[in-house]
Design a protein that fits this description.
The protein is mainly alpha-helical and 40 residues long. It is built from one helix and no strands. It has one domain. 95% of the residues lie in helices and 0% in strands.
Length: 40
């Protein structure tokens, strides 16, 4: 029973990290585009 809970928590942490990474990547791309517009 305890192992199952740990496995679920591990999956949730992994999913959370993936979502955070995607959000950071998305923001990074938008910031890059804005910077390019300002430079032009």
């Amino acid at each position: 029973m305890r192992y199952q809970v740990i496995q679920i928590l591990d999956d949730l942490v992994h999913l959370f990290l993936v979502i955070v990474h995607v959000i950071i990547e998305g923001k990074g791309h938008t910031f890059d585009e804005e910077d390019r517009d300002m430079c032009d």
